[in-house]
Amino acid sequence: MEKAYRAELEKIEERLTEMLPPRAGAGWCGRIFAGLDVPPELTETLLEPGRELFNRGGKRWRPLLSLLLCRILGGGDSVLPLLSLVEFPHTASLIHDDLEDNSDERRGKPAIHLLFGDDTAINSGAFLYFLPLASLESWEGAAEHKNRIWQLWGEHMRRLHLGQSLDIWWHRNSALVPSVPNYMRMCALKTGCLSRFAALLGAETAHRIRGIVPDPALLGRLGFAAEQLGMGFQVLDDVKNLDAGVPGKKRGDDVVEGKKSLPVLLFLRPEGETAGEIREDRMELTRRCFEAARTGGVLVPEVEEFIGALRETGAIEAAERRGRALIREAAAVFASLEGEDREAQGLLREFMERL
Question: How far from chain centre, in Å, is Cα 144?
């Protein structure tokens, strides 16, 4: 199973790399810019920042989810040429997220805006949202199917940006503490929407390739489960940032950013829901530590003081339980999915265990 799992990831990586080649004038990207009479060094400036971040690696779990669902539902690898629609917007969102949060690192190296400048990072990130639409234009699917994918892409790009706007709004306003349900809604939009899109892309492609009208009830279940999966992934990522640290990022940089993640909200509102009263003593500690971290960075003692308080009150553990519960709920839905591709079903179970 390990060999088969790696083979799927390698297949995805190879296809995505074709979409973002080592040189701007090469292969597929060369055809995009052909006839525009633009110097190669100019197009390279547009592509290099995104390529830099993409080549640092990543779990690629969203395109893997899309491909496995397509296989289980009888579509084989037909969604493979479209997977950049999922992964490249994710890469773009990381570039913009780091710029908006003034982050120092991503995937173990300096953030893209620090390497290339804010203006180039913004432009290159925006280009990565739209670049994969060219794969849809050249794809040999029916016009009706292409139109449906275009609609799904537009819907989920709007959700992604709405979720990011909520995140920005909350961390810019130090006095504003969202409720846990509102925070989870933000996660559904900002993080859950791309995994939801991945699931729908794989399922719709499988159905339409087979000439079957997609079942709205099935799509609803898969989309919701994938959204829950993305939310759980985001919560556990927030937990790791305040616990062992996220690979490729500095431990506690969420404190520097003043991020009101789920562990912080459960610390401030011990009951955890809308009606929970904010503990003023904890709010004062949070303000003090956030301000010290914003001014002095992750090495100031207030970062460890704050993380220690979260751990002592059980807020980190409570958030981790919620994140794992979301992933278990999603895994149960995917485990109930029936299909003829037994290998893909086994790989999907393996995928869930790894998450």
Answer: 28
At 233, which CATH number?
Answer: 1.10.600.10
Task: Give the single-character DSSP code of 113.
Answer: H
The per-residue pLDDT for range 96-107, each reduced to its tens digit, is 999 988 788 888
* Residue 82 DSSP class: G
Secondary structure of 262-294 in the HEC alphabet?
HHHHHHHCCCCCCCCCCCHHHHHHHHHHHHHHH
Residue count of the chain: 355
For 28, the domain range is: 2-354
Which tens digit of pLDDT belongs to each residue from 319-351? Answer: 999 999 999 999 999 988 888 888 988 888 888
Q: Provide the whole-model pTM.
A: 0.90
What residues contact residue 257 under an 8 Å CB cut-off, 6+ apart? 101, 102, 103, 171, 294
Q: How many domains does the chain have?
A: 1
200 near 221, Cβ under 8 Å? Answer: no
Burial of 293 (0-12, 13-18, 19+ CB in 10 A): buried
